[in-house]
């Protein structure tokens, strides 16, 4: 009799199942480095030259996401760092794409867009920052660290741009 004390009647277990399925799910399943490249097109000569001015640093990044199967999303943050001399000669070019596979279920469409454009990239981005800095360190050049990014502000800016574009397209030309 003691063996069955913790068991629930079949009806009670079946009644709890639908309640669990309706619960929203947001979970990082896996974070991985999808792609990384490092180029030093003018090495080793560029490393031997005396630099009279501070190098120019250009940092770009973008976020993309795609549904890979039901309730499973792949969110990728791509970052590119280009460092050039004052004479516009490339010292180093580093690019990486860091991705996360997220299980997302039970979240309505509008909040889902917020999750995949703000929360997911915020979780993946620190890994990208570390990987790109590590690549530069391994190339024996001073690392450029990607800045902290507020993905919420970027998402709101993209929404405002899309809304402005939609309004321009609705306005008849004179």
Give the helices and strands as they follow along the chain: HEHEEEHH
**Tertiary shape:** flat
The largest sheet is: 4 strands, antiparallel
Strand content: 25-35%
Distance between the termini: 85 Å
Report the mean per-residue pLDDT as an integer. Answer: 87
Classify the fold: give the CATH topology of the domain at 32-145: Bacterial Protein-export protein SecB
CATH domain class name of the domain at 32-145: Alpha Beta
The CATH homologous superfamily of the domain at 32-145 is termed SecB-like
Low-confidence stretches: 11-19
Number of strands: 4
Task: Describe the protein.
38% of the residues lie in helices and 33% in strands. It is flat. It is an alpha+beta fold and 174 residues long. It has a domain of 114 residues: Roll (Bacterial Protein-export protein SecB), CATH 3.10.420. Helix 3 crosses helix 4. It is built from four helices and four strands. Strands 1-4-3-2 form a four-stranded antiparallel β-sheet. It starts with 9 loop residues before the first helix and ends with a helix.
């Amino acid at each position: 009799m003691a063996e069955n004390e913790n068991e629930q009647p079949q009806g009670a277990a079946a009644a709890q199942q639908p309640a669990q399925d309706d619960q929203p799910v947001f979970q990082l399943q896996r974070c991985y480095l999808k792609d990384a490249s490092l180029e030093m097109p003018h090495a080793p000569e560029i490393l031997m030259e005396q630099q009279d001015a501070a190098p120019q640093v250009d940092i770009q990044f973008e976020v993309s996401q795609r549904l890979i199967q039901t309730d499973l999303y792949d969110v990728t943050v791509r970052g590119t760092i280009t460092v050039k001399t004052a004479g516009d000669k490339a010292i180093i070019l580093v690019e990486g794409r860091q991705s996360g596979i997220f299980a997302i279920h039970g979240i309505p469409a509008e909040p889902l867009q917020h999750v995949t454009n703000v929360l997911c990239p915020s979780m993946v981005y620190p890994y990208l920052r570390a990987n790109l800095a590590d690549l530069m360190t391994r190339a024996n050049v001073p690392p450029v660290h990607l800045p902290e990014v507020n993905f919420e502000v970027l998402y709101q800016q993209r929404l405002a741009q899309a809304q402005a574009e939609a309004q321009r397209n609705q306005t008849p030309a004179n």
